[in-house]
Write a structure and sequence with these properties.
The protein is an alpha/beta fold. It has a single domain, classed as TIM Barrel. Helix content is 42%, strand content 12%. Strands 1, 2, 3, 4, 5, 6, 7, 8 and 9 form a 9-stranded mixed beta sheet that branches. The longest helix is centred in the middle third of the chain and has 19 residues.
């Protein structure tokens, strides 16, 4: 493939602060960049189709060419669909302490039956609200398990985006700028066949978590460096973000992406796509 596919993803639509989600939609309209939003079907204990403000915004997102896929069920637990990776637990000390204290208890909640039930309930609300079945999934806090992947396959899901290429974005969240976290050797920066036949489409990292203007250059340097490295190996550039952590008083995150979009466009061989379009174009290498 001669072009680089760039897919921005964004989590937790359907949760709190819809006005901040609307701010992100306005930014994306101006930038003409499609995004894959991972939507909470039962956020804050309320079904998505009982939230008229969110329904209007999500319909606007679809009309603008964005993609909506399933995110968790209600995002009520760090361990909702499995155990998050270590670099994620490092920024959630209470969850890390619980995992270290009672791993058997945590894992008891990840049976195939329980994972299947949560996915089925979330999928049903999603279909009822939006009129189609989701084919992609992301767990809350990147929490996943083998049983979750099997349950996704059993419910007709095609792909997930939960694995991480470069954990440094989370080290930056903890202000651990000198961690030297390497790219993960077992996570390629492109789609590949994973557990239970599900296609995994990894994210490279998260770069825009509650940034201040003083963070701008450091985080832009990280995201551009990762982008250039992905291009050098012929991979796909998929990033994670959260609408409420890059809007409102935290719009430095939008400025980081504004700079990266401008840089990417200057190269002339970059295409902005949703995750499903990325998969259609790139395929799954043998």
């Amino acid at each position: 493939m001669t072009e680089t596919l760039f897919a921005l993803t964004n989590d937790d639509a359907g949760g709190s602060a819809p006005e901040l989600f609307e701010e992100l939609l306005d930014f994306l309209d101006a930038q003409q960049v499609p995004v894959t939003f991972f939507v909470l079907p039962h956020g804050q204990g309320t079904p998505l189709d009982s939230k008229p403000e969110w329904m209007a915004l999500l319909k606007r997102a679809l009309k603008s060419g964005h993609e909506l896929q399933l995110h968790a069920f209600d995002h009520s637990s760090t361990f909702e669909f499995g155990v998050p990776p270590d670099f994620m637990l490092d920024i959630i000390p209470d969850a890390k302490a619980r995992w270290e204290r009672e791993p058997e208890v945590v894992q008891q909640a990840h049976t195939l039956e329980l994972m299947s039930d949560r996915i089925a309930r979330g999928k049903a609300i999603f279909e009822r609200a939006l009129g189609y079945a989701p084919t992609g999934f992301r767990g809350p806090c990147l929490s996943m398990s083998a049983n979750t992947y099997q349950a996704l396959a059993n419910h007709g899901f095609v792909w997930s985006s939960n694995e991480v290429v470069n954990p440094m974005g989370w080290r930056y969240i903890n202000k651990d700028y000198d961690a030297g976290e390497p790219w993960q050797p077992n996570v390629p920066p492109h789609p590949y066949r994973y557990t239970a036949g599900i296609i995994e489409i990894p994210m490279v990292s998260e770069y825009t978590w509650y940034l201040t203007p003083e963070d701008m250059d450091r985080h832009y340097d990280l995201i551009r460096s990762d982008f250039d490295r992905v291009r050098a190996v012929g991979g796909t550039f998929l990033t994670l973000s959260h609408y409420y952590a890059m809007t409102g008083e935290w719009t430095t995150g939008l400025r980081v992406y504004e700079r990266l979009f401008e840089y990417a466009r200057s190269l002339g061989d970059v295409r902005f796509v949703t995750v499903s379009r990325l998969l259609d174009a790139y395929g799954v290498p043998d």
